[in-house]
Structure prediction request, 116 residues.
Amino acid sequence: QVQLVESGGGLVQAGGSLRLSCVASGRTFNTYAMGWFRQAPGRDREFVGRNFISGGHTYYADSVKGRFTIFRDNAKNTVYLQMNSLKPEDTAVYYCNTIVDGMNYWGKGTLVTVSS
Prediction:
């Protein structure tokens, strides 16, 4: 069983930055591939990015490439989503995700609102 808790959402003006955090339970966090997804009002949940274990590759959706960065602190069991140059279309609930032993785990999400 893995629990994920996101934080760091809020209201920001277009062009601004936010950093989201996701704390994971579990003693083997350094083996988890950690991802971020988002869901805007009235839309399906979409992939933002995923980091494949510490030091591994990180992949991003084209819509956020060059603006968002995923990094992790294994000592704190935490993965971060640094979001720069935010746009109104980035407004969404952001979810942390991992798959462990074939089980898909999600946090409850944190709301990011970008005003124009």
Q: What stands out?
A: The mean pLDDT is 93. The two ends are 40 Å apart (CA to CA). DSSP finds no helices and eleven strands in the chain.
